[in-house]
Amino acid sequence: MRAAPFLLCLLLAACGSGRQVATVAPLRPELGEPLSCVPYARARSGILLAGDAWQWWDAAAGRYERGSTPRPGSVLVLARTPRNPSGHVAVVSRVVGGREVLVDHANWASGAARGRIATDQRVVDVSARGDWSLVRVFYPRIGDLGATAYPALGFVHPASRLAAR
């Protein structure tokens, strides 16, 4: 009973932090978990590309519109790096501002959250020119943007160029 006021204070302090709290729920096989980012982005966006995530940018040329401006439903393509050798793709769920979007993606987290789907996760453009060529991504383990800035290739938009002709 004496611990109740202390626990209540801890809970209230956590509520006011402004950070997203990362919790790991049980695997959801009905959603296909565990899952990598590519099949999730393909299913969620309707963009029918294959290959590793970093290959989507070149694969979209001539098939889908590409650009450096985010739109809801577009796929953000991260380049491959030594730390992220397959690259990463994430679907823009909402444009928050000129340099911030929310994305839905799979398999971004590590540990127990690996292979999970995460929705409405922050991505912030940290490029010097504001052109979305370098981004920081929300990292569930710390409940905030990760410290690493990832090179981004751009956004692949779901409207097919072939369908527009």
What can you see in these coordinates?
This protein is α+β, with helices and mostly antiparallel strands. It contains 4 helices and 8 strands, in the order H-H-H-E-E-E-E-E-E-E-E-H. It has a 6-stranded antiparallel beta barrel with strand order 2-3-4-5-6-8. The chain is globular, with a radius of gyration of 18 Å.
Give average pLDDT, whole number.
84
Instruction: Give the CA-CA distance, first to last residue.
Output: 71 Å
Model regions low in confidence, pLDDT < 50 over at least 5 residues: 1-22
Radius of gyration from CA coordinates? 18 Å
Q: Give a short account of the largest sheet.
A: 6 strands, antiparallel, barrel
Estimate the global geometry from the Cα principal axes. Answer: globular
Strand arrangement in the largest pleated sheet: 2-3-4-5-6-8
Helix content: 10-25%
In percent, how much strand structure appears in the residues? 25-35%
The quaternary state of the protein chains shown equals single chain
Number of helices: 4
What would you call the structural class?
alpha+beta
